[in-house]
Amino acid sequence: MQKIMIIGRPNVGKSSLFNRLARQRIAITSDVSGTTRDTNKTEIEIYDKTCFLIDSGGLDESSELFKNIREKTLKEAKEADIILFMVDGKMMPQDEDKKIVYSLMRLKIPIFLVINKIDSRNDEKRSFEFNEFGIKDSFAISVSHNTGIEELKDAIYPLLKDNLKPDETEFLEDFLENFDDSGEFVESDKNIKVGIIGRVNVGKSSLLNALVKDERSVVSSVAGTTIDPVNETFIYNDKTIEFVDTAGIRRRGKIEGIEKFALNRTEQILENSDIALLILDSSEDLTELDERIAGLAAKFELGVIIVLNKWENKGEKDFDQISLLIRDKFKFLSYAPIISVSALQGKRVHKIYDLILEIYANFTKKLKTSRLNEVIKEATINHPIPHDKGKIVKIYYCVQFGFNPPKIALIMNRPRSLHFSYKRYLMNKIRENFDLTGVPLVLIPRSKNKDENDEEKK
Questions:
Q1: Residues whose CB falls within 8 Å of the CB of residue 249, separated by 6 or more in sequence, listed in order
Q2: Residue 87 needs a FRET pair 20 to 30 A away by CA distance; which of 101, 233, 246, 287 works?
Q3: Is 15 annotated as a binding residue?
Q4: In the chain, what are the domain boundaries?
Q5: What positions does the entry give for GTP 1 binding (predicted)?
Q6: Could you tell me the fold of the domain covering 369-447?
Q7: Fold for domain 192-364?
Q8: pTM
Q9: 245 is in an annotated binding site
Q10: 276 is in an annotated binding site
Q11: Hey, what CATH topology would domain 3-159 get?
């Protein structure tokens, strides 16, 4: 698996970027220079591609310890596939940074210059001073404000290999046997599994009680009351919905004792769920932890309903304002509907049932193949696929090969040349023509045959 390594002097924000890209707080961050001394490594996904992300110790020579850290970091850099060289945008370019850059350039590894802490127009103007480093690809970002991160990911994405597994072609052939003569997916009756997730004390247990119309889950103002998952089934319109109230998630630094096991169990529940009810406390501001929990729903490719709870004293204007904030914060859940409820008063809770059935129908939907290919063809005519180094990139046809959520294979001559931004464009076109409210859409470019795959590598 490919490796992305974050390198830079101490206190430029490497660990914060590491945590942001990993969507969880793994590396310890602080204002103390040299907090990170050993390398942290974790597996991450950049859109639909997987790689290892490495957070290195700061490059410093102020003591014997830091000299050893520097030597170790530069040695490990030789094994990286992509280097993110990070600098502090609040400062003017440093001679020490230039020396490091020139030594890294000799490795002949793709290097992206990441200028962090760009929080104002003055910072933006100062960032142009870093052009003297001679790195072609540079990105002005602010990890703390989550700006510029998506542009950085878009640039990294084409350099990553796809994650097609050897047995996916076999799965495609086996999967087609699950369609009947009418082209509809044949699925046995099963419970719709719904995981209820959110921070501590946002009202998950109260919502479960309101949904199943019973005091099934213990409710308390004490944060972290629910530790074990609470299961309850409810029949609605002849469909059996299985709700699971999971333990509230705290900031990693505040997770203690048995709650660590509860967090792991929450992830296991989501792995086996169809839909996640993401509960937010409408009486409080959105937090980074809310974003991280939302990332779990995206990670497991679930159908999602965003539930604004504690809506006792708010109105339509509040809903519009908060919805805009959510859409800005949770761009990766742009497909998820937002609903406001008051679990305490039972207001609008009943609307969640219909949303669950609608989203589950979309989650298991078979898209009509002929119409799907028409949409893709129209999209490529209106906006042709960019060439790859002068070579034509084309999509022969597409076929749905999976459900839960819908998965579509794009059969192409050069699958690795399809940039994520164009794939996002195709996703939007598909959503315009098919109702996929509440569910993610997976598009996987693949070669038509082995010969074409070998040709692409040349």
A1: 197, 198, 199, 200, 263, 266, 289, 292, 293
A2: 287
A3: yes
A4: 3-159, 192-364, 369-447
A5: 8-15, 55-59, 116-119
A6: GMP Synthetase; Chain A, domain 3 (3.30.300)
A7: Rossmann fold (3.40.50)
A8: 0.64
A9: yes
A10: no
A11: Rossmann fold (3.40.50)
